[in-house]
């Protein structure tokens, strides 16, 4: 009686035996599952040599083969197992252009390798109204079709009446119509940087300019030679001029980047801020591809006149705005300053109403700029106000 082991101990030993058998079975099954696809690339786990508890056995490299599907999921998600990309990478084509495509034929024919490099183009974008059709015809005719794509923004909604314009004949032109909208409204919605990424430069011009003395190819030669990321042609005598820096300077050079005025302190010798330096106005700006990507992001969706934006364009020049922003004197235009928008009011009332909103937009834009600067602690202003 005294030599018999207590009954509870026998029950405990039996349970331990069953648990051990179950554990061995599970271990065998798990090991088989892990090594099913033994041809896959293994995931390697190397213990840190800095750990004080690392033994010689633990220091050896451990490899655990994973299935191909798990590896693909890890590549896409960082190991989370669920892809946040709904499409395979190779099918995504994030950029486009404004070139016309045929509805028939072989779509890959133009993609075959050729011995000659495909010529890059620039883009001319103009807000137009039917009343200025003759001026627009003359303007577009200056831009060679093989060098420039053209998009016309019809702010009066009239598109069909442009079929007889000579400069548009035989030329692929994109027409966008939205009644009563401004150049910057159109640009924000239809000139996304990814859509115009294939164009070297974007000419975002008003329609009321005379181009008798202007050649766009010579203009781009000057821009590239001078390293200008943001530019405009100078305004000829007789133009509507709001800031002295945009007026043509007859000093014999191709470009000027600074304006001095003897009378008054606004543009004295020490002025290094717009509109005395690093300035172009909003009627005929020309942007490089990189500068337009930046400027497009700065254009506000609800501020349609662009007032205030011109003071900040120099931030998009990709460098010193006293060097990268300039006015081209050798290729100049005449700005007639013809009012175009106003919602059916009389001419004088229309101009007053447009200017009132333009000024209000400038105040709003300046406030938003200050708020954005204050909220972004990581951004340092390269041109702090003195």
From TrEMBL:
Q: Where is this region: Disordered?
A: 37-92
Top-level taxon: Eukaryota
Q: Which Pfam families match?
A: DUF707
Give UniProt keywords alphabetically. Answer: Signal
Q: Where is the composition biased (Polar residues)?
A: 45-54
Instruction: Using the record, list the residue span of the signal peptide; answer none if the entry has no such feature.
Output: 1-35
**Known InterPro entries for this protein?**
DUF707 (IPR007877)
The protein's name is: Uncharacterized protein
